[in-house]
Design brief:
The chain is mostly beta strands and 492 residues long. It has five helices and 31 strands. 32% of the residues are buried.
Length: 492
């Protein structure tokens, strides 16, 4: 059995940094949180705190408990790690080690934590002091654990998440938290609760026995400007530009190291007298890179067409080349690696066949097979003629149309309406209210949340418009009614 990796990363100093506030930053500890686990609207993972690189700020577009209930419902196909009420109460629905479906962008979901805030993106009431303060305390706790700097590249709004076609706001083009969210106030509070950052550096390498080419980067905090990467006490790379990584974002080729234990070190430097050092003990366990073949034994007499099949062991192969008497005849870059050689084009007698495999990590292995061509000894066999395939009828194209939607003609609507549309073909679906595009979705289930209570009472025309990749469109329109608010009450 191959030895397993044992990583020890300056455990005492790192743990002290993650758990103990700096200076007078006792308030950077996590605020009170109520745990209400969601019912499946997330992806199980094992994310370490240091793998989180971003906090995404959202707005619920509704009341607190209604948003919590909806984000716990599997039908929502959405979730968030935390929800913050206007009174400052915090509910957690997804563990930070798991991946919540909050950003509309899978890459962002993988590396971030989502925080919803009770309210409306364009509501007149904005957000409360309790919301800003408790949310900032929560974010300060997250950034301290993750060794994240506090800035607008690491703490972003949903409207800044990349979307399809170079747009923003994720897959559905969200605009929250909107113009009423005070970013200057929020980041000032986060920095205050997080406290003064000391220089910290942490080596990040994959877990387990290391083989082939692996990423190696450094997570930093506290204004570190340069990181030195060392292997077994020898500096092998210096990076002076964040994000700090070995070979400037390249990778560590472990095949250049002997199998066994090695020590990786990262030395983060701010300036004279201000630095931090952390180490990781790793185990390199590269298997021998070799090549086997079938189809020809050494000194075999061959005639006609010879087929060689090869397999590569010990590491993924970039390519396998087939040579005859030193000349490259064919290159295959995808397994199974198979080659054919028409021997009638070569003279009878001895020839040297050679298979050369190149691994992704740069290693090369080869196999040489001497054979004897003997075509003149027997008459060539006639080639069987393949039967022509029967033509298949072309399938009739499926027309683009709106199959169904969750709003009906004449329906009376109030509050937050979940408007879901099913087209006959994969498409982009736009949601129009009174002829104005209010949102779009690019993947099933095609869904848009419409706040009917924010509309003028009376009739409104809702149009679902599907757009296919070839430019065709299909519309389905219904008329709904928003009732006037009851006497003596205000619209929410």
């Amino acid at each position: 059995m191959a030895p397993r990796l044992a990583i020890t990363v300056a455990a005492i100093s790192v743990a002290a940094f993650l758990l103990t506030p700096v200076g007078g930053a006792a308030t950077a500890l996590r605020p009170p949180v109520t745990w209400l686990k969601g019912d499946g609207n997330y992806t199980k993972a094992s994310r370490a705190p240091q793998s989180i690189d971003r906090v995404v700020v959202h707005v619920t577009e509704g009341q607190f408990w209604g948003a919590v209930s909806w984000l716990k419902n599997p039908r929502a196909h959405a979730s968030s790690h935390f929800v913050v009420s206007r009174a400052g109460k915090i509910v957690q629905l997804v563990h930070t080690s798991d991946i919540a479906w909050h950003a509309g962008n899978w890459r962002t979901n993988i590396e971030s934590v989502g925080i919803e805030h009770e309210g409306f993106t364009y509501g007149p009431d904005g957000f409360t002091d309790a919301q800003y303060r408790n949310s900032a305390r929560l974010t300060a706790w997250l950034v301290r654990r993750a060794l994240m700097p506090v800035n607008r590249r690491t703490i972003i709004g949903h409207s800044e998440v990349p979307g399809p076609g170079g747009r923003k706001g994720g897959a559905s083009g969200h605009t929250d938290p909107g113009p009423r969210w005070n970013w200057t106030r929020y980041l000032t509070l986060v920095r205050s609760y997080a406290g003064v950052e000391k220089p910290r550096v942490l080596p990040l390498v994959p877990a387990g026995a290391l083989r082939g080419i692996v990423p190696w980067r450094a997570k930093t905090a506290g204004g570190i400007r340069r990181v030195e990467f060392s292997i077994d006490g020898r500096v092998v790379w210096v990076d002076d530009r964040a994000p700090f990584a070995y070979r400037g974002g390249g990778a560590l080729n472990t095949t250049k190291l002997a199998n066994g234990r090695h020590v990786l070190q990262v030395h983060g430097i701010v300036g004279p007298g201000r630095y931090d050092i952390a180490r990781a003990a790793i185990i390199v366990d590269n298997r021998a890179f070799r090549l086997t073949s079938a189809g020809a034994r050494p000194w075999k007499k061959v005639r006609g067409t010879l087929t060689l099949r090869s397999r590569v062991w010990g590491a993924p192969a970039k390519q396998v080349s087939f040579r005859v008497d030193g000349r490259v005849r064919s290159i295959d870059r995808k397994a199974p690696f198979t080659f054919s050689w028409t021997t009638k084009d070569s003279k009878d007698g001895k020839h040297l066949l050679e298979l050369v495999a190149t691994a992704l990590d740069g290693r090369v292995t080869r196999r040489r097979i001497p054979v004897v061509v003997a075509n003149r000894a027997v008459a060539p066999l006639p080639k069987p003629q393949p039967k022509p395939p029967k033509p298949k009828p072309a399938p009739a194209p499926t027309p683009l149309r709106i199959v169904s939607q969750t709003v009906a003609n004449g329906q009376i609507v109030t509050g937050l309406v979940l408007w879901r549309v099913e087209p006959s073909l994969a498409a982009t679906v736009e949601f129009l209210v009174d002829g104005v595009v209010r949102g779009a979705d690019v993947a099933a289930p095609y869904t848009f949340g419409w706040n009917a209570s924010a509309e003028t009472p009376g009739e409104h025309v809702l149009t679902a418009r599907a757009k296919s990749t070839n430019g065709k469109t299909a519309d389905a329109t219904v008329t709904v009614t928003v009732p006037a608010p009851a006497s003596g009450t205000e619209a929410p």
